[in-house]
Amino acid sequence: MDSWTLVYNEFEPEQEALREALCTLGNGYFATRGASAQADADGTHYPGTYLAGGYNRLKTEIAGRVIENEDLVNLPNWLVLKFRLDDGPWFAVKDAKILKYRQELRMKEGLLAREIRFRDGQGRVTVLRERRLVHMGSPHLAGLETTVMADNWSGRVEFESGLDGRVINDGVARYRELKSRHLETLETDEIDHDTIFLKVQTNQSELRIAQAARTAVFKNGESLRLDRLLVQEEDYIAQRFTVDLSKGRAVRIEKIVALHTSRDHASSECGLEAGKTVQRCQNFKKLVKSQSHAWRRLWRRFAMTLKTKEKNSDTLTILNLNIFHLLQSTSLHTMDLDVGVPSRGWHGEAYRGHIFWDELFIFPFLNLRVPEITRALLMYRYRRLDEARAAAREEGHRGAMYPWQSGSNGREESQKVHLNPESGRWIRDNSRLQRHVSAAIAYNICQYYQATEDREFLSFYGAEMMFEIARFWSSKASYNESLGRYEIRGVMGPDEYHDSYPNAEEPGLDNSAYTNVMAAWVLTEALKLLDLLSEDRRRELCDTIDLGEDEMDRWKDISLKMYVPFHGNGIISQFSGYDDLKEFDWKGYREKYGDIQRLDRILEAENDTPNRYKASKQADVLMLFYLFSAEELGALFKQLGYPFEYETIPKNIEYYIQRTSHGSTLSRVVHAWVLARSDREQSWDLCRQALRSDYTDIQGGTTPEGIHLGAMAGSINIIQEAYTGIEQRGGVLWFNPCLPRELESLHMVIHYRGHTLEIDVTGE
Ligand code: BGC
To answer: Residue 492: CB within 6 Å of ligand 1?
Structure first.
């Protein structure tokens, strides 16, 4: 492995699903898992192609009620390129006697390559070589080049090049009791001698997707015009053809595919466009060249280099892998789309392609590279502001209450029940009570502005979202006479292990410290923002959303008097009553279960609940130290009339780190960050783990269902911002570098408010 290539030298069926996710190719418009082109979904392989923002809703009756889920739809499989020797069985990698195997993800050029040398039952040795791409420069294009070489035999090879619309959403075992057929076929056709066509439509959202595939055949460098047999089955179309091969000779097949949808811009009808794109397209070799140029341009903006003192370090490779997948999920093409950034990439079906608060971990890296992408992703939120207003109204509140999980139109898409695979039970899912997602959006707006000083965005879109979010917090907060302070009741903080008080009938917790502090911060920033707007725009906006002085006075009051629970010696309580919970037997459970990252599932299966214990899934209170510098937080606590001492941060870190299972991949990112100065060794250790979350499938089975973009981008940003001590505050870019001892040096180019900065940091 070099720093630009991920290499696998063996075929390991049980690793295949993970590799498919890690070898996914995409361009921000669509993505295709790195599945074998010779396989259908069969338990080992799972071909999946997903459109950014390609959702569909289906209803299922489950656990006695009808629930509706919005899924990221698995689109027709364009990879299909099967072959067989003479009349033998179709080649399947898992059945072959493999003599040599090599799979390479070439991140610099955006290519996936595979070489398999195998022997069949009749002693024939064959070499299969493949290269594929999903084009970063031309977002509608993908290509697959397949070469079959007869090593010790002569005979006939039959190929089938197809477009398979029979696919369903079957990538996540936990969802298998739910309805999964999202597509109906509208049309299959042979456009010309070389080109087949498939058009489908999602059965609820009526999104049309057209794929056209042009297949060309070459032998000895010459193009072959062969007779092709059209295979037209229900939801499937393919061409079959045979090629005679003599010993030592090879045949090369180029399959170039165009994918268009009814949502594209500059489009007449998606079928027409797909046919046109594929017919106009150049050959595979030229596509490879333009692909590598497109990636070269991207890497110039996004790459980082670092030197570690580790022997045979793969850290830079993993860093590149994470940047690679981030850019395949949200690329320059995102700027022209109405999509958010999905927590699991467009790489699989986990969390259904939904958008969570994970943006908070993803945007900072983008902000200092290509903030225009962040702007587009914030516009995804702006377009759903009305839906957030409606959600707040439905709960009896004012302002904008953004959903915990967001998909097509910004409706709350969190599940109402979820399956615990440990117990087989369907459990009520209260995660939607994580109202802090709205604060994250406000934070993201402010960070984007800090990085860009984009007043137009702020004035036309950002401010309106900020004010409506502030308004929501103001309406959600209530004054508690006995405390003499405002409180927020009935919510959940980021730690998903706590969704209610032990034995309580109704879910929800009071005074999540993280939520309350974020709410106070939003109100403070919203008031400051009023002064940033021009007089005209301020008047106009206040008029539009009917924002008056009385309301602003209340914002001010809450921003001074929000309640923050404490217990013991300066420890910020995760929520009111946290201190009454029992200590958890970490040692005993580790001994009994080994991996206890998903303690919630383990306890539920034992008819218990983490709600009874001081045990967190992920960083919660510590999020405050992740998002704000000590100076900022000190000022905020002072404003609220609470002590914030030098010791507050280390004390709270020490308290909570012992009580966290890291059941979310986001958790290590936060812990690595907050320890960056006080414990450089542990910070680097956690950063290394966070960087490798997907590469090593740290949760033991979740990465095959989709990468964890928050952990990928968050861990990159530990290097970009935590170890360099970059902070954007008050229109100033601050640096306070402090590299972990294992990091020798770091080089990167960032952009800040129109300036380009080339940065070199060394341990000295
Ligand atoms: C975490 C959330 C996160 C979500 C999506 C959950 O496991 O607890 O904080 O937003 O995954 O990544």
So the answer is: no
Which of 359, 363, 666 is the pocket-test mutation for ligand 1 (most atoms within 8 Å of CB)?
666
**Nearest partner of 75 among 49, 98, 54, judged by Cα:** 49
Q: How far apart are CA 471 and CA 545, in angstroms?
A: 10
Radius of gyration, alpha carbons of the chain: 27
pLDDT of res. 758: 97
Pair 325, 347: CB distance under 8 Å: yes
Q: For this structure, is 764 an active site residue?
A: no
Phi-psi region for residue 317, left (φ > 0), alpha (ψ -120 to 50) or beta?
A: alpha
Cβ contacts of 649 within 8 Å, gap of 6 or more? 625, 630, 633, 674, 678
Which residue is closest in CA terms to ligand 1's atom 6?
664
Helix (H, G, I), strand (E, B) or coil at 497: coil
> Cβ atoms within 10 A of the Cβ of 760, count?
9
- pLDDT (mean) for 91-101: 95
Q: Best of 174, 343, 359 to mutate for ligand 1, by most ligand atoms within 8 A of CB?
A: 343
Helices (H), 477-598: 513-532, 535-545, 549-561, 586-593
Instruction: Identify the residue whose C-alpha is closest to ligand 1 atom 8.
Output: 664
Is residue 76's pLDDT more than 80?
yes
| pLDDT, tens digit, 9 for 90 and up, residues 563-596 | 999 998 899 999 999 999 999 999 999 999 999 9
325: enclosing H helix or E strand? helix 315-329
Distances (CA, A) of 324 to 105, 154, 386, 432, 648: 10, 41, 34, 31, 38
Could you read off the pLDDT of 206-239 as tens digits, one per residue?
A: 999 999 999 999 999 999 999 999 999 999 999 9
Task: Give the predicted TM-score (pTM) of the model.
Answer: 0.98
The CB of 216 under 6 Å from ligand 1? The reply is no
**Is 497 a pocket residue for ligand 1 (Cβ < 6 Å)?**
no
Q: Are 213 and 193 in contact (CB under 8 A)?
A: no
The DSSP element (H or E) to which 760 belongs, if any, is strand 755-762
pLDDT at 87 over 80: yes
Residue 493, ligand 1, Cβ within 6 A: no
